[in-house]
Amino acid sequence: MAHPTPRLFGKALVATLLCAVAVSGCDGSPREQRPGPGAAAPEGPHATGDVNERARVPSGGPGTRPDATEVGWIQLAIAMDRQARHILLLARERGGDRDLAVWASEVAASRGTELTRLRALLAQRGVPDDNPHEGHDMPGMVDGQELRALESARGRPFDRLLRSAIRDHLEQAQTLSATLRKARVGPDVRKTALGVGATATDALRRMPPP
User: Phi first, then psi: what are they for 92, rounded to 5°?
Assistant: First the structure.
């Protein structure tokens, strides 16, 4: 049996995350779950309460299971920011455009700030930061060959590779953040996603021209 390549696996994983977000609801509010015919009546302390009241338990709260959409986005955003920050920090030593190097340093700092927030969200949900996307070729990230090219290039060739890689990263961050805004996620995740999207938009706007 043929096995999926890391490139296909990464793209399929992002597509799955986007699909999960799309079907989770576009208004940000939980949908009411109605029991089907013959279903047993709910029991326990919440038996007489509104079904949606139980759905409003904060994500990641005590006794709750981490939301798959939230965790999937957080882990993907961490992987993207971790790699982007590494690439951006190369510009100081390998770049040929001073303005681009200054911009890269500023964007790298913003990636570091985002990583702190994202890792805090993951820790609050009791999920380890073990980089499950290690070795995957994800949209918005470079693959191993492209990364080696960046780490060996200098001057104008490096600048060209940097612009391409980070533009893809920032545009993918915008896409994922915009999609997450439509999902049923906790307010802390929604706020972070809005910040990630806004930061990516600002970085793209300020990217020095070639």
Answer: -60, -35
**Residues 90 and 158: beta-carbon distance below 8 Å:** yes
State how far the Cα of 183 lies from the Cα of 23, in Å rounded to an integer: 8
The answer to whether the beta carbons of residues 165 and 87 sit under 8 Å apart is yes
Alpha carbons 138 and 103: distance in angstroms, whole number: 24
- How confident is the model over 11-56, as pLDDT tens digits? 444 555 555 444 443 333 333 333 444 444 444 434 333 333 333 3
Burial class from Cβ neighbours inside 10 Å (0-12, 13-18, 19+) for residue 88 reads buried
Rounded-to-integer distance, Cα 79 and Cα 206, Å: 23
- Cβ neighbours for 21, distance < 8 A, ≥ 6 positions apart: 69, 73, 179, 180, 182, 183
| pTM for the full predicted model | 0.72
| Total number of residues shown for the chain | 210
Angle between helices 6-23 and 68-89 (to 10 degrees): 130
Which 3 state secondary structure label does DSSP give 95?
strand
Q: How far apart are CA 150 and CA 163, in angstroms?
A: 11
| Contacts of residue 201, Cβ cutoff 8 Å, sequence gap at least 6 | 170, 174
3-state secondary structure of 170: helix
